[in-house]
## 1
Amino acid sequence: MAALILAPLGGLFLGTFAEGPAAVLRALTDAQVVEAFGRTLGIAAITVAVHLVFGTAVAWVIVRQRFIGRRLLNSLIDLPFAVSAVVVGYMLLLIFGRSGLLAPLLRALDLRVAFAMPGLILATLFVTLPFVARELIPVMEALDTEQEHAAATLGSGGWQTFWLVTLPSLRWGLLYGLTLTFARALGEFGAVLVIGGGIQGRTETATVFVFHALEERQPVAAYAVALVLGLLSLILVTGVNLMRRRKRLT
Amino acid sequence: MSPPGYRAGPASAAVPWGAWGLRAAAVLYLGALVLVPLAVIVQDGLRQGLAGLWRAISLPIAWHALRLTFWTAALMAGINAVMGTLTSYVLVRYQFPGKRLLEALVDLPLAVPTLVTGVMLVVLYGPQSPLGGWLESSFGWRVIFAPPGIVLALLFVTFPFVVRTVQPVLEDLDREQEDAAATLGAGAWTIFRRVTLPALSLSILSGALLSFSRAIGEFGAIVIVAGNIPLYSQTAAVYVLGEVESENRLGASAVSIVMLATSLALIWLVDALHRRLVRR
């Protein structure tokens, strides 16, 4: 197991620093790299904000409401996990692309989705859809509604109750779901490559940069960016995991 | 569960506009983001009917890409079933220093972007690396830019699936039967094979199926390690990318539909298995 998992990480580390730390620093401060990282972080931040609102709403509707089609809705949440990233990008192209379903409408409104930021964001939203809802649903199901009833009896309105009573007990689940969303958004590659086309200066994210740098035989730049991406995701996910475990113990 | 009169959360007034609004928002959000794209791709793939779909799939390059995807995924799922069961057995039944580190390592592949996984494997096993060069010169094994690299990448990416489905079942397992078997003179291996393994079989199966389903769509790691040579090491996801770039819509849609249908069918199968597991 160590051979399978730890050795590759060590290999990447050595590969990155094969030409010394100065080369790594030069690669990471390159304007193209900084721009790609900025784009990736922007996409990830927007994705997190959207899923914070809609992921919570979806989890709430599924746990607290009873209606026809609820089970269908529940199974829809997991669907993005079953779809290949390339297929995600391709589906969006079929809708928003040059000869896509919505092409006339987009042209009339002078909007660009494919090969532009909105497409990158939509693709990332799709692949990260399950995380927040899947983390929140079990927490909400286990939640005792007595406190909410008590608050309602005391004259608290719906929003106030949600804000002051429900949300605080959800915060760790929410934080974990959002961190997973952010980490996954940082590392998304296939979907943003297809819908964005990987145009340098316009739709090139950090992962797409790694791909291009490998093709153009710039190993140090590719390895350095890959290492930063890997470590960032790793620290985020492990950090929140540890925090959550500690909270559960106390 | 909520009491019977309690439906829409604490806000439920006489007319629950808030609840309906929330419900509409959730349904619209999921519908627009998930259902519409799926419907569009299915409609696109069936433009020329089932016969056209079949023609697009049975082109030699597409057919080879699908076969390669399925056999590498199946091989990986088999290896994962064995190694994942062993790992979870070690994690649940033994106490040893470094166990918590091992526990954390299991989830590592979920945190690392798959593209980065691919880069790591190329650095370690690639033809220019010492290890990769040694494997090729002394055994003639080409790992990277060949099918073995695909299996290796899939193993890394899906490593947690079997462990994480088997582990909770193993933890809940009653050890009385194992103790009884030991009292009756059964050896450790016999106990594992005849008592423990049957109790775990459903969870091992669903873990393996989940990893298989995940493997069918894998792209980021594979596109880096496989070399993507048509009729040799090009998988279905990479084939779809190529067809999208050369604007062959029918080919891209047809292969996408096969991938989607397989993954979805497997996930539903696992869901059904899981429900049987819970009922027991």
Note: Chain A touches chain B through 85 residues (CB under 8 Å).
## 2
Amino acid sequence: MSDILKLTAADLAAKLRSGEVSSVEATQAHLDRIAAVDGDVHAFLHVSDHAVDVAADIDRRRAAGEELGELAGVPLAIKDVLVTTDMPSTSGSKILEGYMSPYDATVVARARAAGLVPLGKTNMDEFAMGSSTEHSAYGPTHNPWDLDRIPGGSGGGSAAAVAAFEAPLALGSDTGGSIRQPAHVTGTVGMKPTYGGVSRYGAIALASSLDQVGPVSRTVLDSALLHDVIGGHDPHDATSLTDAWPSFAAAAREGATGDVLKGLKVGVIRELDDTGFQKGVSESFRASLAAMEAAGAEIVEVSAPHFDYGVAAYYLILPAEASSNLAKFDSVRFGMRVNVPGGTVEDVMAATRDAGFGDEVKRRVILGTYALSAGYYDAYYGSAQKVRTLIQRDFDEAFAQVDVIATPSAPTTAFRLGEKLNDPIQMYLNDVTTIPVNLAGVPGISIPSGLAAEDGLPVGIQFVAPAREDARLYRVGAALEALLVDSWGGPILDRAPILGGAR
Amino acid sequence: MSEITPDLVRHLGVLARIQLSDEEVERLTGQLDAIVDNIAKVSEVATPEVAATSHPIPLSNVFRSDVPGDMLSLDEVLQNAPDAADGRFRVTAILGEEQ
């Protein structure tokens, strides 16, 4: 494997700036890596045929003395939920096979403007509905740590791409854990920003009041650097916040010194009973807490009595919003159209949606249609929205006592492909610790906390901060990351099996 | 137990414009029944005095100037249409014979 591939995005950017490495070299190295291992991993649905040209343009502009962004020339993988003008955008669905967007998502446009080099589009559960990428219409992604296991979802492609060194950075989207849970099972870093902190314009909507776009990477600093590029107000997204954000990269660099841990109050949720969690996940979580405590942090038990209702509320709100958002796939304006001889437009629409949507999408659209129907609306959707208020209050009360909350990022390490595919309720419970964060709109980050003793697979720890305190997560995440990487003697991915060859 | 029946699922399929096969209706009936049993507990804590939250970060009156923004050309609008003619989307008959 080329040395370029092992570099963090921050280190690669430094070498690009100094001229030690060109963007063409870096881009070609990643394309070669994709060619070598993606047959096994299947992180990508589409690989750009002109990434080297884009990289050459960056090299030319750098040589001409142009002032470029910090990440200029660094390759980037893009989750297929984000629309792009130069590559198909399918959101993992057959109904959008081959769809070419007439515009770029704002985050993609900002990444291009900053000089990042799009490598391709990454696999995902269809319309981001899932926790394993097994609901992709184009076949699952395989976890680079064990190809028989799930890479998490919905953004399993983006997480697997960075874990397999096919890209140093990726974009993801997180509606109930789709950035953080894949990070947990692949030994990578994923950040869900404050709701409204990053534009959703051009992110094919799943549940509009929960969706948030965010960075995926191998280190906390790399996520922060990408967040600095994509974040900030966008007039194209009416829910976009107008706040002036601090530099997240500066926060991560400051955090890495470890000073932030001295006197930091870390909340642990009393009601989040981890007795049902995999033993190695709980052990890794507690070991991380102990490491933080030894570095001067104070662990404080906080109460969040309504977290128990989070998954239930989520599986009412998400299907309700998704059933509305997916009404646009109507066989009229874009996407698939099934030929029904003599059929009316409604017949064609119904046949197209039957043929074009997968099982999980149908399940959630039907569930959402039920939750919104007359007679049930108050009992289901209305009640779920009240649970959101209660969970927000739980967070408010907890954050009156602590600076951040810590949880395991998910209850288990990567499970086997197929293991939970026919049991939707078990699949839904994967996101028990990440869902409340989306319901409340607060930011959350998952960073590697170690390997589970019983199976040697990665485990993540999630930190949650109050709304708009994304920088705090980069500070705390970078501090713990520095402690743990030091104790391991190197990044956790050094211990992953070697792909495309002998273990 | 919830009240998910095959007839209700078939009706929801009509509302959602998804033509479900009998096999799909049967499978979805069982799955939705189990899911609804698991999510109905939201009503336990959703008491009348709790206000509903639709968006996590409240914003109000998000306006923009009343001037044309970024527009797609007609060609761009129609570029992904399954069928188009004369600058419009073309569809099959709106009304069936019985209507």
Note: The longest helix of chain A spans residues 378-399.
